[in-house]
Amino acid sequence: MIVIAPLMTHALIDHPYRLMLASFTLLCASMLPAHAEGFSACSDAYYSGIYPEFTNTKLAQDTQPLCFDGFAVMYSARSRTPLWSAEHLTRERLTQAKTIDRQDSFHEESRLPRSARASLEDYSGSGYDRGHLAPNADMATRSQQYDSFSLANIAPQSPRNNRYIWRNLEEATRDLTEQYGEVYTVTGVAFLGSELTQLDNRVLVPSHFYKVVYIPALDSAGVYYAPNDESERVEVISLDELEANIGIDVLPILDASRRDDVLALPLKAGEPLGETQVSETPSWMVFVAALLKWLVNQLSA
């Protein structure tokens, strides 16, 4: 299955341009990275089916894409954590999620080799929380909820960050989904600096957590970015700044004019969304320009 195929049914593309996109699809099919096949079963978790790209290629070593029920994960055997988890949130999904009570079921990920996976013992007595990247409260079925407790979706998180700051940001993201109908979100971790620590000399502790929030109705994105400590600090930054920090282009299909804008995301549910610039460029032109950028990146890779 070709991951780029969902682009051809994008609602913003008028009929006269579909033939042009079909040609692009055939041209790109043979150049897709190896991870594309791994995400083919869960491409709907990513906006237009296009997943993040590593601009720092060292990060791609020993990684494995994993499809779960309700979200997608890029897992790193080097850190024994996910690098990111991606979700497509809708108003209907969150309405269903509210009917399900939380049932903790943290478990090792059996699809990973034992040498590459984190274990429950790694976190025991560590002083860090088992922090969800794709949060339990986003899950609309028991199957999705169970999958969210896989340690492949978990990273060591500072208790105060996890229980206060990050919880507020997750609630704010769900609130935006309620307001605008749908949101694409990619939640990830970064390992910056030279003094990183490990749990049990196995699981690498992230220096930062981030959450990219893209709102299709606004064609705009913002990024929550927080150090993984007890400081309760959080910034809202642009996609370009995030890429410069972490070496990953989280939304490669997004038009360049959107990447250095900062959508002023609320820090708590119920707070108003800050002003953002909305393009007056026709949607099909924005989409084709983004596709061309993606194609050029693949040719030069």
TrEMBL record:
Q: Which PANTHER family match?
A: ENDONUCLEASE G, MITOCHONDRIAL, ENDONUCLEASE RELATED
Instruction: Report domain ENPP1-3/EXOG-like endonuclease/phosphodiesterase positions.
Output: 68-257
Which cofactor(s) are needed, names only? Mg(2+)
Q: Which residues form the signal peptide?
A: 1-36
Q: InterPro entries given for it?
A: DNA/RNA_endonuclease_AS (IPR018524), DNA/RNA_non-sp_Endonuclease_sf (IPR044929), Endo_G_ENPP1-like_dom (IPR001604), ENPP1-3/EXOG-like_nuc-like (IPR020821), His-Me_finger_sf (IPR044925), Non-specific_endonuclease (IPR040255)
Name the family the entry cites.
Belongs to the DNA/RNA non-specific endonuclease family.
- Would I find Signal among this entry's keywords? yes
Q: What is this protein called?
A: Endonuclease
Which superkingdom does the taxonomy of this entry point to?
Bacteria
One of its Pfam families is Endonuclease_NS
- Kindly state which keywords UniProt assigns to this record, in alphabetical order: Endonuclease, Hydrolase, Magnesium, Metal-binding, Nuclease, Signal
User: Is Repressor set as a keyword in this record?
Assistant: no
| DNA/RNA non-specific endonuclease/pyrophosphatase/phosphodiesterase domain span | 67-257
Give the EC number(s) listed in the UniProt record: 3.1.30.-
